[in-house]
Specification:
The chain is built from no helices and 13 strands. By secondary structure, the chain is mostly beta strands. Strands 1-2-4-6-8-10-12 form a seven-stranded mixed sheet, with no helix packed on it. Strands 3-5-7-9-11-13 form a six-stranded parallel sheet, with no helix packed on it. Strand 1 and strand 2 form a beta hairpin. The radius of gyration is 19 Å and the shape is globular.
Length: about 150
């Protein structure tokens, strides 16, 4: 007779995902920033208008983008902050948790999608930015006041 196959024990943990090395590089017209953990000093400069920035699976990190680029997307990040000067189109947060964004120049649109916890600091020049959100919670938009 054959024995029944035992089901996995409750509470058994699946294998840990394989950690990939952090990457920050320009590929064609897209800056790729991915898999950074506890890195508060990621700086992207020497940027151009037609470039985009794609930030993926970063945890507890800070990314600074200097100059004007087309757009910035943060995908599947946790406890990560983005600081940037100017964007032609939009800043997007997708599938993120506990995020912060700060614009020092101008941005037209901020999109917050499937994100839990997002603080967006707008500059005086971006006070009329369009904010679009879907399937998200705990969102705060902070604006400058006359007394600073």
């Amino acid at each position: 007779t054959t024995k029944p196959v035992a089901a996995p024990k409750p509470g058994a943990k699946p294998a840990a995902p394989i950690a990939k090395p952090p990457l920050t590089e320009l590929q064609n017209k897209k800056w790729i920033v991915e898999y950074h953990v506890d890195n508060k000093n990621i700086v992207i400069d020497n940027t151009e208008l037609r470039q985009t920035v794609y930030i993926f699976k970063c945890v507890n990190s800070v990314i600074t983008v200097k100059g004007k680029v087309n757009s910035i997307i943060l995908d599947s990040c946790k406890k990560t902050a983005i600081v940037f000067d100017d964007l032609v189109s939009s800043l997007e947060f997708v599938n993120c948790q506990s995020m912060q964004g700060q614009v020092t120049g101008k941005v037209a649109t901020v999109s917050i999608d499937k994100t839990d916890g997002c603080m967006m600091y707008l500059s005086e020049a971006s006070i009329n930015a369009e904010i679009v959100s879907a399937k998200s919670s705990e969102m705060n938009i902070l604006v400058p006041t006359a007394d600073g």
